[in-house]
Amino acid sequence: MNKIRSWIKLLCAPEITRNKILRLIRQWGDPVDFLSGSRDILQDCAYISPLTSQYLFNGREPQCWAQVEQLVRKFGIKCVSLLDPLYPPLLKNIYDPPVCLFYRGDISQEGWRRPLAVVGTRKPSNYGRIAAQSICRGLVKHGFTVVSGLAYGIDTVAHKSSLDNGGRTIAILGCGVEQIYPARNAGLAEMILNKGLLVSEYIPGSRIERWNFPARNRIISGLALGCLVVEGSRKSGAMLTGRFALDQNRDLYALPGDIGRPQAEGPNYLIKLGAKIVTCVEDIIEEYDLVMKKDDDTLPELTPAESRIYGLLLENRPEITLDKLLVFSGLNIGELSALLLTLEIKKVVKKLPGNRIMPIF
User: Fold this and answer.
1) Phi, psi of 108 (to 5 degrees)
2) Are the beta carbons of 135 and 281 closer than 8 angstroms?
3) How far apart are alpha carbons 83 and 13 in whole angstroms?
4) Do residues 197 and 111 touch, judged by C-beta distance below 8 A?
5) Same CATH topology for 104-288 and 304-359?
6) What is the CATH number of domain 304-359?
7) pLDDT (tens place) for every residue of the chain, 361 residues total
8) What is the spatial distance between Cα 20 and Cα 22, in angstroms, rounded to a whole number?
9) Which residues pair with 358 in a beta bridge?
10) Is the peptide bond before 182 cis (omega within 30 degrees of 0)?
């Protein structure tokens, strides 16, 4: 509870931005630690205004804390920050990662294994529904975790098909995780909690706002290896998620459709931009044949440093040169070599000729 309270305090501070929070936690660590100290520690932080500093160290609870605490206790809400080893490794490396995620459900490193986003229109055709059902069924049978947004239409189909076939699924919300939007999916959300996660970057109690959902979409694509757009217009939220996937250097897949259907405009346009055509799950699976293993294999336990390197390898698959990995990681050659050796011993990476490294899990 202290951890959540400290993060709420930081997130609610006046004149604070995501970039300022990132700089603060990189310098001083978790707010649960530095907010219990003296205000003097921020004297050299020119980017923190006196108003922000005074608020952070005034000794008072955040204004919304009474409501948030009640929701946290009632719904079993927890949080994971960029500083935690359980933070999604792929999401950590996008341009503007959420500094803190609130969630309900069971979180683990295994829970982020082979995540793939499946998104689409709220008004799918029968063709779109059947295709999404078939592809999601195949994905979970091959050990993928399906990520979507719990909206009507394709999102609902993706979550439900994953659960119906014994798979794990993650729903990213555009409001507090205690709220289910749309309300009609409350039953589906409860099913997801049995074998998956409800996740949001928004503070518990945050109202549903239209502008929250575009920001939510960058998380859907950001924590996944790739994104499949099933159906949607050129201006749909699904298309926005697809564009985020391109910006984040994620694999982009699209279901081709009838040129006369409005729902097919988005995916067909993405195909023109270079998205891979997907007509069956094998079209996706073959892109990851280098990292596919038996379904009963589990990801070995990794240290925070190992998890960070593994996330960089996944983000740059199928392979990356040692020189690039040195640049991306910010480590020296000795530190990186030691981490790669332990990852190789744990059988999650493989060294290739030419100083290249690839993930094999």
Assistant:
1) -165, 165
2) yes
3) 19
4) yes
5) no
6) 1.10.10.10
7) 788 888 888 888 888 888 888 888 888 888 888 787 677 777 778 888 888 888 888 878 877 888 889 999 999 999 999 988 889 989 988 888 999 999 999 887 666 778 999 999 999 999 999 999 999 999 999 889 999 999 999 999 999 999 999 999 999 999 999 999 889 999 999 999 988 999 999 999 988 888 888 899 999 999 999 999 999 998 888 999 999 999 999 999 999 988 888 889 999 999 998 999 999 999 998 887 534 444 445 667 788 888 889 888 887 877 889 999 999 999 999 889 889 988 888 888 888 888 888 887 6
8) 5
9) 350
10) yes
Domain boundaries, the chain: 1-63, 104-288, 304-359
* Nearest in space to 11 (alpha carbons), one of 3, 104, 89: 3
Residue with tokens 């960029």: 82
Instruction: Give the C-alpha distances (Å, rounded to integers) separating 102 from 7, 34, 146, 175, 315.
Output: 10, 21, 19, 10, 23
Q: How far apart are CA 23 and CA 164, in angstroms?
A: 43
Q: Give the Cα separation of 232 and 251 in Å (integer).
A: 18
pTM of the model: 0.78
261, 263, 267, 269, 316 from 256: Cα distances, Å: 11, 10, 6, 9, 26
In Å, how far are 6, 166, 223 from 190, measured between CA atoms?
28, 15, 22
Residue 314 CA to residue 294 CA, distance in Å, equals 18
Contact (Cβ atoms closer than 8 angstroms) between residue 310 and residue 90: no
Q: Could you give the C-alpha distances from 176 to 29, 58, 233, 257, 353, in angstroms and in order? A: 25, 26, 27, 35, 48
- On the 0-12 / 13-18 / 19+ scale of CB atoms within 10 A, 65 is middle
Assigned CATH for 104-288 = 3.40.50.450
